[in-house]
Structure formats: structure tokens, C-alpha cells
Design a protein that fits this description.
Layout (H helix, E strand, L loop, with lengths): L7 E3 H10 L2 H6 L5 H9 L2 H5 L8 H10 L4 E5 L6 E3 L8 E4 L2 E4 L8 E9 H7 L3 H4 L7 H14 L5 H16 L6 H13 L1
Antiparallel strand pairs: 1-6, 2-3, 2-6, 4-5, 5-6
Helix pairs in contact: 8-9
């Protein structure tokens, strides 16, 4: 089985998939160190030679981790060796330096907060599809939209449905880097969200 088809990807593999959507890079970075990931960005001329086109950034991955639409697992460095899900709230304290997740809190900077961080390959392919795949499929990430809706409704219980839709559209535009669906399109989906 190739490194691309493994159940879990390390942080380097996840980031290069988000940034370049390139299968060969994901395979190359299966055992990558920090220097290897940094070198790719220090020498963008390599992109032309390898026919790479950057389509997103590291922050796109981080936003998904923060909002909980992507779950990562790892070993917390200050606890017993136990693989666990990294809570979305933890990502605010992490300086992402693939393949490392460093502590960004004052007094702890540079120390590894989580080790052996991994994400499910299936989640990565669902959230960041290749251009060939997305051309014939749904235009919007409805899983993300539902999560944004539920979070907005919880944070703002006094908001009207129209206010919630507006909030969701603004957040979606920021996170997904694309135009959100229109009000009536979200309203149709919202009926199902409110029932469940």
C-alpha cells in the first residue's frame, strides 16, 4: 500500500495535500522532517520544475482544525503515552511547524505540545478534493456549513434565522475561501438541520 493510501497522514502529508493537492508529494512526505517541509517553501523554483501549483495555505488546514471540521490525533507530550483526539480549542495554543505541533503559549514556546500528530486520509480527501473531483460534485461543503450553523445558533440563541444565515455565510466565506450558498439554499438545508 502506498503512503498516499494509508489510513492516517502525518502533518507534513496533510499540509502538502492542502497546499498542492499532489499525490506524489504526499507520498514523499510520509517520513518528512521539518527541514524537508521548509525546503519546499524556501525554493519555490522547485515548484515549476515539478509542475506544482500552490492552491491553498497552511492556515486553511489550521482553520479546519480550530473549527472542528477536521479532527487530528496525537500524543500530548506532558502526559502518559496515550493516543487521543486533539480538542479544537487546543489549536489556539499550537504553532504548526509540520511535522511538529509546538507550544505557542508564553513560557513554553518551541516545546513540542503534541507528538506524532496525524489525521485521517479519508477526512483530508473529503475536505480537500482535487479539481477533477470537485468539478462534477457539490459546489459547497455542507458538512462545514452545518457545523457553522450549529455553532452560530449556540453562540447566538437570540438571533433570528436570517441573522444566523448571514453569520454562517460570513464564516463560510472566510474559512472555505469561496462564495457561500445563497440565503434560500441555506434555508432549505436548515430545515433538516433543525429537525436533527
Amino acid at each position: 500500500m502506498s503512503a498516499f493510501d494509508q489510513k492516517y497522514w502525518n502533518l507534513c502529508q496533510a499540509v502538502v495535500w492542502v497546499e498542492f493537492r499532489n499525490r506524489k508529494l504526499v507520498e514523499e512526505y510520509a517520513n518528512a522532517e521539518t527541514d524537508a517541509y521548509q525546503a519546499l517553501h524556501f525554493y519555490p523554483l522547485m515548484w515549476e520544475e515539478r509542475k506544482l501549483e500552490k492552491v491553498a495555505t497552511l492556515s486553511d488546514l489550521l482553520l479546519r482544525l480550530v473549527n472542528g471540521s477536521l479532527v487530528a490525533q496525537g500524543y500530548r507530550s506532558d502526559e502518559q503515552a496515550k493516543l487521543q483526539n486533539i480538542p479544537p480549542s487546543q489549536w489556539h495554543d499550537i504553532d504548526l511547524r509540520p511535522p511538529r505541533a509546538l507550544d505557542a503559549r508564553a513560557g513554553h514556546r518551541g516545546q513540542e505540545l503534541w507528538t506524532d500528530v496525524r489525521v485521517k486520509q479519508a477526512d483530508m480527501l473529503r475536505l480537500w478534493r482535487t479539481r477533477e473531483e470537485t468539478s462534477g460534485r457539490t459546489k459547497y461543503d455542507w458538512i462545514l456549513l452545518e457545523k457553522l450553523f450549529r455553532r452560530a445558533a449556540q453562540r447566538n440563541p437570540a438571533f433570528s434565522k436570517n441573522d444566523l444565515i448571514e453569520e454562517v455565510q460570513l464564516e463560510y466565506k472566510e474559512i472555505a475561501k469561496g462564495e457561500p450558498p445563497g440565503r434560500s439554499t441555506i434555508q432549505r438545508r436548515m430545515k433538516g438541520w433543525l429537525k436533527s
